[in-house]
Amino acid sequence: MTIAFRHSSARQAPRPSTRASALKSALVSPDLTFLMEAHNGLSARIVEEAGFRGVWASGLSISAALGVRDNNEASWTQVLEVLEFMADATTIPILVDGDTGYGNFNNVRRLVRKLCDRGIAGVCIEDKLFPKTNSFVGDGQPLADMDEFCGKIKAGKDSQTDPDFCLVARIEALISGWGLDEALRRAEAYHQAGADAILIHSKKSSADEILAFCQEWANRCPVVIVPTMYYATPTERYRAAGISCVIWANHNVRAAISAMREVSRKIATSETLVGVEGTIASVKDVFALQGNSELVEAERRYLPQPGIDTQAIVLAASRGAALGELTADRPKCMIDVRGQPLLRQLTTTLKDSGIRRIGVVVGYRKESVDLPSIETVPNQAYATTGECASLVCAEDRLDGPCLVTYGDILFRRYILDRLLEADGDIVVVADALWRERRRTGPGLVHDHVECSRPFSPGYLDEDTVDLVRVGPDLPDRDIAGEWVGLVRLSARGAERVREELAAMRRDGSLDRANMPDLLNRLVAGGHQVRVQYITGHWLDVDDSFDLAKARNFL
Ligand code: SPV
Ligand code: MG
């Protein structure tokens, strides 16, 4: 049979812009369209992934997936919930199996409005009685009164809020044994009532009665079929018959049942996962279907990423002689703290706060500083120079927001997050609980700070504190805290620091200067150096006592 014409709108149809218009175009198009069954968000996504143009939200499959019978045991609002997940998981049109419409014309009106609200492209309602029974269960199921069913179709069409929403009228006359004439009579009535397409259903194992129907019907409106029982029929015959749409109605839920049974049985009998791991979808695959990568992207866009533009310079050139043998073959930044080099623990915290570029100034045993995703910058003269000379080695990195940190410290991440968000071009972190940390011994230095205001537990975050001076020999009465070895520089702050380093180079003080000398010069030069107080939650590693503390800290 040749079908020269289906619907005049097919040729001039504008590009579908909604899912409903896409379904409508597919129904009226002269091409055969296939809808594939899905019963939840995941299966709907898989249907789209496979390349189908639309989803059949099967009543049988949704009920089965919910663990109930296909007898309207799931309420229509429960089905609606499932549909919402399916719509969210896909971009292609969904034609939902609306059974008998869940009641009379009034229920159909409400159903159609709610489906339109949720972006469902169309509904198929069948001319049986509520509560329905699946077409393949038993014989001679009673049919709905034809005129009453036409009223439902009209009510549905009058209620759609999307102009392209499709209502497919399903004829059960062949299923119930009423024969071809009754099927054709009903098809005409439903077409006249405004159905966008008719679905002619059959439970025979041959497609003969369906093809006979199509011959008589001659495409007065698009025809949809469900070849579950006459599955052996070549698809070409449907094309030749001018059928608009084939629904593969339940094959995903059945595939899932077989796969789940097999894997459950295997695991139950073998008491191990060894035999199944390679045969099932990977966890990565699950994540991909859930769209995890989109969330990662969105997190980058919407979550605060305080350190995202900031790079770090880690000063880690010195040996750490007070650690004795432990630093014989490596600098102290590489000594092991609970299975990881100290520097690795530090860089993990930096990365967790969004700092991606990390330059480490190395000197003593520099070849042993071989961590992934850091860049090393050598200070060849590490043995005879101080911290500022090391900083100069990484000077080209002072070209934007920057964090300068000692390589032998550990701190809780919130300290860094707060520092990265702090106002000010040059901000240092000082521990107000300096007295509790005070210890004397070889190689132990505490750089204390004098500030414009002491720490008070009740102070407001907006109140700013400025550095007055920093160094190891402040009188107790002036000490407000201990500098932890962290400075955050804005782009302007980094520029100030570069200028100051250049001045130190000129006046010959650079090589011997340490970071506190630099900070004091900045303050003396009238630059504001802000202080952010903390109360503990950090440590530096100078000797084996500190090392023991570091192990407990992690
Ligand atoms: C469904 O998939 O729920 C259908 C098609 O209605 S059938 O099961 O063949 O009736
Ligand atoms: Mg059904």
Descriptive overview:
- The protein is of the alpha/beta class.
- The strands form 4 sheets. Strands 9, 12, 13, 14, 16, 17, 18, 19 and 20 form a 9-stranded mixed sheet that branches.
- The model is unreliable at 1-15 (pLDDT under 50).
- Bound molecules: sulfopyruvate and magnesium ion.
What is the structure about, briefly put?
This protein is of the alpha/beta class. The strands form four sheets. Strands 9, 12, 13, 14, 16, 17, 18, 19 and 20 form a nine-stranded mixed β-sheet that branches. Strands 1-2-3-4-5-6-7-8 form an eight-stranded parallel barrel, surrounded by nine helices. Sulfopyruvate binds at residues 58-61, 97, 134-135, 226, 228, 249-250.
How are the SSEs ordered, and which strands pair?
Layout: H1 9-12, H2 19-28, E1 33-38, H3 41-49, E2 54-57, H4 59-66, H5 76-88, E3 94-97, H6 105-117, E4 122-126, H7 146-159, E5 166-171, H8 179-193, E6 197-200, H9 208-217, E7 223-225, H10 235-240, E8 245-248, H11 251-270, H12 283-290, H13 292-302, E9 311-316, E10 336-337, E11 340-341, H14 342-352, E12 358-362, E13 375-378, H15 387-393, E14 402-406, E15 409-411, H16 413-421, E16 426-431, H17 434-437, E17 448-451, E18 467-471, E19 481-489, H18 491-507, H19 515-524, E20 530-534, E21 538-540, H20 544-553
Parallel strand pairs: 1-2, 1-8, 2-3, 3-4, 4-5, 5-6, 6-7, 7-8, 9-12, 9-14, 12-13, 16-20
Antiparallel strand pairs: 10-11, 14-19, 15-21, 16-19, 17-18, 17-19
Helix pairs in contact: 3-5, 6-7, 7-8, 8-9
The chain binds sulfopyruvate and magnesium ion (MG).
